Amino acid sequence: MRIIVHHPLAAKLQALLSESLPNAEIVTSDSMPAAPADYLAVFNPPQALLDAQDQSLKGIINVAAGVDALLNNPSLPPNVPIVKLRDAGMASLMLDYSLYALLHFSRDFDRYAEQARERRWKLRFPQPRSQWPVGVLGLGAIGAQVAEGLARHGYQVNGYSRSAKTLDGVTTFHGDEGLNEVLRRSRAVINILPATPATTDILNRTTLAQLPEGAVVINPGRGNAIALDDLVELIDSGHLRGAALDVFPHEPLPPESTLWQHPQLLITPHSAAPTMMEDAAAQIADYVTRWENGEAIASVDREAGY
């Protein structure tokens, strides 16, 4: 059994998988020419690697939660099952990022930074978390844990998903009107939706205007969801207070982008929830073992995009 690994940390992943699957031949894509495999464990693989596959390929494991780059690859084999990492340590990191960004605004650290630039000393009294209702968009494996985690931290949380969900401590909504309802109720909205055609620019001038005046936007999820020009326009007009942006439609964010210098934007380099290699290797080994044992595994819905 051959497993080919393609990932920025391929060597580390190869070593971890070799411990879990000692009878498998595990190679990295940069250590050999593109060749057929039984399984691929990949992150944004090159077309040449996918073109080299034949009928021996039994499954593709996407070494990330987002599968949009893989699904958009024109060389993706049509009938091979695809699975993706589910959490792999990312949910707790995403929760950390969301809490940090919430505190950045709710505890006035954005305004303290402005005051510091002006050498102005002014105390701003904290508001209770009950006055900062939060909307979480996307209640999948990671989004659900973020929403429940924020609720445990004392926030009033409203969650949105395409289909109905039930979560502890979270008021949930679904469907088109559900999205608008969550936005209307939220002083902060956190995007963790998957990247699909249906979610592209879902947060645009019309939907973002549903947020109450002074609300903030936090995006640690996928870069396609926000129409950035519309977001900046609503911030500049005073309707929105600011935003924390970790992901963008095109990465890395170009040095010449005006977003870098915007005083009401907190920008980070796609760092909210990097994949933890130990957890990723454990999931990959589990997927391969179950496939080899003939077990059925819930795979990515190519049409839905997740």
End-to-end separation in angstroms reads 27 Å
Counting DSSP H or I runs of 4 or more residues, the number of helices is 10
Strand content: 15-25%
What is the helix fraction of residues, given as a range? 25-40%
Class inferred from helices and paired strands: alpha/beta
Principal-axes geometry comes out as elongated
What would you report as the Rg, rounded to the nearest angstrom? 21 Å
Question: Can you list the strand order of the major beta sheet?
Answer: 8-7-6-9-10-11-12
Q: Say how many strands there are.
A: 12
The largest sheet is:
7 strands, parallel
Which sequence of SSEs, written as H and E, runs from N to C?
EHEEHEHEHHEHEEHEHEHEEH
The residue-averaged pLDDT reads 96
Structure explained in plain terms:
The chain is of the alpha/beta class and 306 residues long. Helix content is 32%, strand content 17%. It contains ten helices and twelve strands. The chain has helices at residues 10-20, 47-51, 68-71, 90-106, 109-117, 141-152, 175-185, 205-208, 228-236, 277-292, and strands spanning 2-6, 25-28, 39-42, 59-62, 82-84, 134-137, 157-161, 170-174, 188-191, 215-219, 240-245, 265-267. The protein has a seven-stranded parallel sheet with strand order 8-7-6-9-10-11-12. β10 (215-219), α9 and β11 (240-245) form a beta-alpha-beta unit. α1 (10-20) packs across α10. The radius of gyration is 21 Å and the shape is elongated. It starts with a strand and ends in a 14-residue tail after the last helix. The relative contact order is 0.14. The model has no long low-confidence stretch (mean pLDDT 96).
